[in-house]
User: Fold these one by one.
Assistant:
Number 1:
Amino acid sequence: MKHLKVIFVLVMFCAVAQAQPFIKEVTAFKKQDSISFPGTGKILFIGSSSFTLWKDVQNDFPEYQIVNRAFGGSTLLDVTRYEQDIIFPYKPKQIIIYCGENDVAGDSTVTGKIVFERFKKLYTDIRSNLGNVPIVFVGMKPSPSRWQMRARTIEGNKRIEKFLKKKKNNGKFLSVWNAMLNADGTPREELFIGDRLHMNKDGYKIWQKIIQPYLIK
């Protein structure tokens, strides 16, 4: 009977995890906050692994207070799903988003337009809950391992950029695309680690130079 109870608990845990992807990561954030809440009114980084793996993000922006709540593998749908946990409690003075690559890579039917619609939903939710907090979207990068998906990625970037251009001071699109390409238009492999998806320190140096001028002190 005891073994059956253990099996039942494991099955239920797996079912919940499947129904709520990334719940482990979000729960870890909440536990961390319960021990030491980072406070409100800071710059919030959210999105997928390119932000998650930016371990030196605070050191790269020493004059700014950064809260990083990105989790690897996430799509825009996932970020929106957990917005009550990873965005709104911090009442940030600015939100920096990097997401969308996994939307494209995870489903061949996801077009650039769908990526944009998912971003628009997240943007609208943030506006409804946090008013006119400035939002910066860092455009999807040209990852070598996902180069065959570039048409959909470029389309998504263009749609989001066009949308944010209309938002003036409260919305900004930052492109990292051209800065990460060779003269022949191919991705700069030397900016990435072995998986050809995630960046090394040289890649993050490029991002730091592009993002810093738009951060709010």
Number 2:
Amino acid sequence: MVVRLPLRGLIDVNCYLYAEEKTRRAFLIDPGAQGEALLSLIREKGFTIEKILLTHGHFDHIGALETLGTREGIPVWIHEAGKAWLEDPELNLSARFRRPITFHGAHFFRDGDVFRLEADPDWALRVIHTPGHTPDSVLFYDEKRELAFTGDTIFRGSRGNDAFPGGNGGQLLESIRGRVLTLPGRTRLYPGHGEETTVAEEAGWYRT
């Protein structure tokens, strides 16, 4: 199952639990803020987090890592291009708000890697690299359940901002057209901000 956890920080963000229902084992995707409240909710609902998966390294997607990663020791994974973003408040934009965020000790994945829940390997997310918003932006795609966590690459009716450090508008459009919209039309897209959508619903915005 997918549980959306809207978090309120300097910028509101969607955090997600990708969980196997019987065992309550889960991946936590983009814990961007409210670390203590998020940890309390996870414990209250009986979830066990196997890994934290990051769609990219901007501050509004990593704000709870101090609590969940550093203090609680939950393994944190990000694309190999994201190391500098985790460690540099200028790149992850937290310095702009005078609340610098850094995280060290992450593990790194590459395009095509697959994460499977230990509780049930049938629950699997494949990494699809979608640079453009940032160099490390990715989707996490579950082919069997026809869903993807898209971070800030694509939203309902819009696309990610390419004006931040490392952003590239042409690359972003290439990622959307070549890597997102080539997924089956029924695929549900769970973005970093706003409401969910589908590949079919978004395809019309990008026809040439």
Number 3:
Amino acid sequence: METKEIVLPKHRFLINADICPDFAPQMIDPYYWINQKKIFSSSRGRGTAYFIDAGQDRKWVLRHYLRGGFIARFMKDGYFYPGRNRCRPYMEFRLLSDLHEKGLPVPEPVVAHVNLNFYPVAHYDIIMKYIENSRDLVSVLKERSLTEGELEGIGEILVKLREHNVYHHDLNIHNIMLDDKGKLWVIDFDKGEIAPGHFDEMLDRLHRSFTKEKSIFKDELNWDESSFDRIIRSCGK
């Protein structure tokens, strides 16, 4: 992957030049795409993710970084800027780039953006490739149970993360996607890092996520503990 950086007085951009050789700074603004009627969908979690048809068979997801937890009451989307080598969008971009090149099922990064208009507080954005015809496991489980192959596939992904010492800080079933070809993907590597020794922590977090969603949706969610046991066995645990 060829990357390049654009440094402006108040903005920094890290760009995947293979995917976006025609990058212009306005591309990081959702209103640029809204005005061109290029937004084909959106999703709301902690914030809004915009799904963009950028032309030339390119579909992207634009996400603005928002805070969670107690501090979000006072600072919704601002972060102390630690320098571009340690800021969250650059770190996520580089981690995704590395994992993608190693063949892990993660979205390929397109652009990372740092807005320094309120330095030393920064605001962040990232654009990634859109995973065609995919949905998270919660959506799948509302319709049907996961197959044996899909459960084994989740275990295989966990093993790959362990083999590459990847620490996903928030591995939950909203961040595991299944496309219409049966391929599983992992998304949202914000705060992710290469840090060995976190496999059991990620496994526990994923288990809590299944349990939480089951408690919310009850019989609407086609899930039981025996399914997680199958995932664990696929991990060699």
